[in-house]
Structures are given as structure tokens and as C-alpha cells.
Design a protein that fits this description.
Keywords: RNA-binding, Signal. This protein is mainly alpha-helical and about 300 residues long. The protein has helices spanning about 5-15, 20-25, 35-55, 65-75, 95-105, 110-135, 145-155, 160-170, 185-195, 205-225, 240-250, 255-270, 275-295, and strands at about 85, 95. Helix 6 (about 110-135) packs antiparallel against helix 7 (about 145-155).
Length: about 300
Amino acid sequence: MMHGADPVMALRLLHRLRIFGAVFAVPPSVIAGLSEDAFGAAANRLAVSAYDEIQAWAHPECGFDQDSRRRCMLAAVLLPIADLQVPVAKGKPMSAAYHVVRESLKWKAKDAEAVDALHATAPELVAVYRQLLGQPDGVPAPEELRVKLGQCIRRLKQLWPAGCVVASLLHSNPEYGGESTDQPPGAAALAAAALSGLESTDGEPDMPSVQRRLDFCEALLSAATAYGIAGCWQWKPLLDGKQVMAAVGMKSGGPALGRLMEAAVEWQLAHPDGTAEQCREHLLAQHAAAQQEEAGKQ
């Protein structure tokens, strides 16, 4: 299906034969309110949009290998259930998308984790894009924006171009919640959108719509390049745990060390050309401020 030469046609046939819900099975108690027909219609619409976008995106830095392509397509197909949870006997619930990938499709855990990451990061990338639109020309981006985008890239790693595609689907469809909220699309909203027939899944690609989504992706990619963080998921930390502990005089690890390590990552994203010594000075100042604040509470 997703591994074949024409995944869109395979999905379309599943929907037309009314077996989409059997293949992408979700527990009935979880998917209440979203009919099998509506789920299949929404999934097909999103799959077509994702496929057309992947085919049209010719940027040299956004190459999609086989794994990236099928995970991106699968994340698009499962967007209608991105906000649904499946209870489990022990532990916290799993996402409905994770359940479908692991239990229904019998794909690997890495595929399910990738789909979850794409769904979780999509609204964050939408939020970053909106901030980019509000940036005046010639004004350096605030550190917060660079860090937000860098964190998205670090989470998705080589899948981050796929993350742009999934986020563009969320952003370009206001009925999915993409224009009015930073939350994943709701199942009920997607069902209504799918049945409204706003975009056909047959025939030639709607190139104006594809181009709008590509513009969204290019804006994020250009920002990452301009900020010097496009490859940040491959960076080595400026300071390791032992160096951080030595810098601030910590005797042992724990939550405080974890917070400092996270702060070091954020500083590096905000200052891609920064040095280890500059990072050390930043952490020392932050640690001193945290200690002073803690002392004030006592």
C-alpha cells in the first residue's frame, strides 16, 4: 500500500471498496463521532494533498527517501485521528495514530513514533510560521523564534521536511483548526471538512493550493537556513554533562542538571556560532540566578 508505486490509488481503492476502516482500524469506542466513510474521505483528501506536495517540492535540501515519504504520507492519512487517544491496560494512553500503525497495520514501533512526532510537531511549526509572517524585514529574529524552530528540527531530525508538509496541511485547512488554533485537528471537524467536498481527490493536482503549501514549507526551510540551524539535529553538544557540572560546581546530577543541559541546547540553537566558553558563562549566570531565586523563597 504505502510501499507501492501509487499509494494514493491504493488508499482510494480502500475507500471506494469500503474497507478503509478495516485496514486502518481504530477501536469503535475511540472513534465515536467519526464515521468510517468520513475518516476514509478525510484521509484520502489529505493523502492526495501530501503526495502532490512531495512530488512538487524540488528544493535540494528536502529530499524524501522511501522511509520519509511513506511516514509523511501515513501521518497525513492519520491526521483525522491525531487528537484521539486509545486507553491501555497499564500506563498512559497511546495515540490513536500509534495504535493504527502498530496494531492495525503491524508496522514497526519506529514508524509509529515517527507519525506521533510529525503530528505533535505540526502545530508548533504552524505557530513558528505565523511568527515568521509577523517579522519585519531586516530585523533579526528573536532568540525565542530560533529556539522554537530548532527544537522542532531536533525532534524530527531527518524527517523535518516531512514535518513541514504535515504542518502545511494543518495550516492550509482552517476547518481542521489550522488557521484558528495551534492544536491538532479535531476528528469531528475533519469529518465535516471531508464530506464538504472542498477539494476533489480525483483528477489533476490543484496547483495553486499545492503552491501555497509549498510556500509555507519554503518559508520554514529558508528561516532554518538563515538562522544557521537547518542541520541542528546533527550537532554535538558544546558541553557534556560533566563539563556542565564542573562549570557550575555541581557535585551530582539530577533534575537541576537536566534543566541546565536543556538550557545549553537552547542557547546553542539561539547562538549557532557560539563557543563552549560562551555557553559555559551563560549556564553559570543562569545557575546563579536560579540559586538566588531559590534562596529568596526560603
